[in-house]
Structures are given as C-alpha cells and as structure tokens.
Amino acid sequence: MNELISPKYLMKLVADIETAIWDEYGSHKQVENYIIKWHEEKGYYQNFQIYTKPDRGIDLNSTLHGMNGELLLKMAIDLGVSTPNFIPSVPIFKNEIKSDYSNAYDTFNKAFKLIETDPSTSIGLANSALESIVKEILKDNRFKSKLKGSETLYKLSSTILKEFGILDSEHPQEIKTIGSSLLSVNQAIEKLRSEKTNFHGKTVDDMLISDTMYTYFIVNSVSTVGLFLISFYKTRYPKLINLSEDDLPF
C-alpha cells in the first residue's frame, strides 16, 4: 500500500496524526506509551524506530515520519483523523453514531480495534453494529413495520429499504438497482459473519477470514452503508419537536 500513497499525502497525514496524538494524550510519557503500543520488534526487525530527544522524551515527528503508509493510515483511523481517499467513511461514521446510536458506537469501536488481532470477532461486531442502527431507526412510530427482535441483518435491511421506499416501482431502474445492491451487500456481510468467521463455530476444514485487508474492507463497507441509512433517515424523517404549552408563541 505504501507505493500507492504520495509523499505529499503522507506529509499532511503525519501532521494531522501528530496534532491528534498531542491533543489526546498531552504529555511526552503518555504519547510515548501510545506509540509503543504500535511498535513491533523481533530480533533485528522492528516495524519502525522510536526517536527521542535528549532530556525531552519521544521525538514524535521523526518517529511518525519513519513509519510506512499503511501503519499511518491505521493509526489515523484509530485516532479519528480523516483520511480522504483512504477509508474516509470510518471516522465520519463514528462521529455520526456517537450520540444517537451509542450502542452501535461502542460495538463498532470494538470491531475496529479488533481488525488486526481478531478478524472474525471484528466482522461479527461490525455486523451487530449495523443491525443495531437499523433497529434503532425502525423504532420510529412513523414506520409501519414492527420488529420481533430476532431479525437478522438481511431481514432488517429488507424492511428498512421498503419503509424508505427505495425499492418502489416508480423509481428509475437505476435507483432500484442500487437499492437491491445495498440489500445484497448487507446479505453478504451477514453470510460472511455466519459462514467465514468463528461466530457460529467452525471446524479446521472451514475457510475463515484471516487477512486483515479484507476485514478492513468489510468494516468500511458497514460504515458506508450505515452512513447512507442514517443520512436518508435524518433527511426524510426529521425529528419531531414536541412543544409544551409554555413553548407556544401565543
């Protein structure tokens, strides 16, 4: 991935990450502790070098510039730093669901943190986060569908697309195709969770997703779909404001 990222892009990314780290942790000691979490060292190999300044602790700028592009992107996403053209939807998605979809926010955060260490659990949690968002939206009394609570992601997706009217016959075929494709994406995410992860128990002969790049792809797909559903809901079904007698202008 490193060769796909221009030096100019990396310079800007390092600057943004450096600012985010200092804002988050403040002291040289805490900043160094955070960087050490990313550091790998085996024999003569280390994924990057930690630079220090005499009597001042870590030289964060030099240390960040010594990292490869893929690691910088992962660090940016962990810190919520925007990464235009490279998985940009994840930090936007996290900010969008933080207040109104707190359960989904906590679940999605766990999913993202486990991408590298436990891909199966990460995919399962990402699936659960999307389920949680759809269920929360469908609680709106303006929708006719009533949930039993046991619906899978595919069933939930089919229900919300019908409620949104995205699959209605009066839409151009292209819109209906996109709606059907969105349903297919969610069905694929659900099938991956059920058939290609450890969530439902597997034998040694079963194929499991272990390549983290695929896991990043799946988690990013969840954030993209989630952003669309939330945006559509907020635009077409704005929150109702209940005014008390004291709030009336007359």
Structure keywords:
single chain, 250 residues, mainly alpha, 2 domains, two-stranded antiparallel sheet, two-stranded antiparallel ribbon, 10 helices, elongated
Total domain modules: 2
How are the strands of the biggest sheet laid out side by side? Answer: 1-2
| N→C terminal distance | 63 Å
How much is the radius of gyration in Å? 22 Å
Average pLDDT score: 85
**Which overall shape is indicated by the principal axes computed on the Cα atoms?**
elongated
- Largest sheet data: 2 strands, antiparallel
Task: Count up the helices.
Answer: 10
Q: Helix amount, in percent?
A: 55-70%
Proportion of beta-strand residues: under 5%
- The total count of strands amounts to 4
Order of helices and strands: HHEEEEHHHHHHHH
Low-confidence stretches: none
Summarize the structure.
With 250 residues, the chain is mainly α. The protein has ten helices and four strands, in the order H-H-E-E-E-E-H-H-H-H-H-H-H-H.
What does this protein look like?
With 250 residues, the protein is mainly α. The protein has 2 domains: 1-83; 87-237. 59% of the residues lie in helices and 3% in strands. The chain is built from 10 helices and 4 strands. It has helices spanning 7-25, 28-38, 60-65, 69-79, 89-97, 102-113, 119-138, 153-164, 173-195, 212-236; strands at residues 41-42, 45-46, 52-53, 57-58. The strands form 2 sheets. It has a two-stranded antiparallel ribbon with strand order 1-2. β3 (52-53) and β4 form a beta hairpin. α7 packs parallel to α8 and α9 crosses α10. The N and C termini lie far apart (63 Å). The mean pLDDT is 85.
